[in-house]
Amino acid sequence: MSKPQVLIAANPKTGIVWSKDEQASKLGAVAEVLELTSSSRSEFFDELAGSGKYANVVGIYRHNDSVSAVGLFDKELIDKLPKSVKYICHNGAGYDQIDVAAASARGIEVSHTPQAVDAATATVGAFLAISAVRQFYRAEVNVRNGKWKAGLKPARDPEEKVLGIIGMGGIGSALARRLIAFDMKVIYYNRKPISPEPDFPCTYVSSQDELLKQADVVSLNLPLNDKTKGSFGKKQFDLMKDGSVLVNTARGAVVDEEALIEALESGKLASAGIDVYPDEPNVNPKLIAMDNITLLPHMGTETRDTQKKMEILVLDNLVSAVSGKGLLNQVPEQKK
Ligand SMILES: NC(=O)c1ccc[n+]([C@@H]2O[C@H](COP(=O)([O-])OP(=O)(O)OC[C@H]3O[C@@H](n4cnc5c(N)ncnc54)[C@H](O)[C@@H]3O)[C@@H](O)[C@H]2O)c1
Predict the structure, then answer these.
(1) Is 90 an active-site residue?
(2) Which residue's CA is the closest to the ligand 1 atom numbered 38?
(3) Is this prediction's ipTM beyond 0.90?
(4) How far is 322 from 299, CA to CA, in rounded Å?
(5) SS3 content of the chain, % helix, strand, coil (to 5)
(6) Which of 102, 140, 262, 270 could form a disulfide with 243 if both were Cys (CB 3.0 to 4.6 A apart)?
(7) How many angstroms is it from 314 CA to the middle of ligand 1?
(8) Does 112 sit in the ligand 1 pocket, CB within 6 Å?
(9) Per-residue model confidence as pLDDT tens digits over 26-51
(10) pTM of the model
(11) Could you report the per-residue pLDDT of 186-205, keeping only the tens digit for each?
C-alpha cells in the first residue's frame, strides 16, 4: 500500500532547517514527503487542484516562512485545499496566519507548537522587561556614540516592582519564573484563574483594569484573535501607572500602535520592550526614532535549539496524525 502524502510548506529554498534527519527517519517512515516548490500563490493553487502534484496530500507541515511563496493560510487558500487534506501542522505557538474556522468548516484539524516556544520567548520577554526598566537601550546608544553617560538619568530597579502578565499560559508562566528571580511580584489576568494553581508565587486579579492599575511592568502574553485584536489601546494605557513599562512578545496587532506611541511620548509609559509589530517586517518610524524603548525583530524563538524543538514537535504531530493516532497539539478552538 502506498504511503500517505504530506507537504512541507516551509521556506521554499530551505524546507525544514534543523531536523532533516528526523524528517527522513520519522516522517519518511510513515509518509511520502513532498517539498513546497511553488513560487507563487496561483501556482500553488494549480498544484493543489485536479492532477496537480499536491492534489492528494493528507497532511501539511506549515511554517510562516511559506508566506513569501504562497501567502497566508486564509479562507481562500484553505478552500482550495484538496479534500484529501485532513491535517495542518503549524510550526509556531501563535497560529493567527491560519483561518482555523475555515479549516474546521472543511473538517481539517490544525495543530501548533505550544511549550516548545516557552523558554526562548520568555527569555526575550525578560530581556525586554529588564532593558526597558533599566533603560539599557538608551545607555547602549550612548556608549556606541562615544557619549558615555552624558544625558542618562538613573532608571528604576525591577526588584519589588509589580509584573502584570496578561495571558498567563506557557510563555507567561516561563516569564514569571524568570522575573521572580529579579524579585518582581507577579500578578496575572486570564479569563479565569489557572487551575491547578501555578507552582510559583503569583496572584490572580479578576479584571484586566485592576491589573493595569497595579502593575509597574505589563507583559502581553495572550494570543491574537478576533477578540484580542486592537484590544490594548488608549483606555488601557490611561489606566496604567505613570512611568510604567509595556512589554509585548505576543503579537503587534493586539496593541493600538498609535496609542502606544502617544503613551510613550506623553511619558505615561517610561519605556517599552517590543518584539512584535502589526505589519512585520515594517516597523513604525516613530518607534524607531524613540530612544527610550528596546525593539527586537520578532526574536522570540530565534535560537537553533528552540527551532529544532519546534520542528520536531511538528513532525511528531504529523507522524501521529497520519498514523491514525490523532494530533498531539490540536489548537484549543478545535479541542472545545
Ligand atoms: N515573540 C515571539 O517570537 C513569539 C513566540 C511564540 C509565541 N508568541 C505569541 O505568544 C502568544 C502566547 O503563547 P503561549 O504559548 O504562551 O500561549 P498559551 O495558550 O499557552 O497562553 C495564552 C494565555 O492567554 C490566555 N488568554 C487568551 N485570551 C485571553 C484574553 N482575551 N484575556 C486574557 N487572557 C487570555 C489563555 O487563557 C492562556 O492562558 C502566542 O499566541 C503567540 O502569538 C510569540
Answers:
(1) no
(2) 169
(3) yes
(4) 32
(5) 40, 20, 45
(6) 270
(7) 18
(8) no
(9) 999 999 999 999 999 999 999 999 99
(10) 0.94
(11) 999 999 999 999 999 999 99
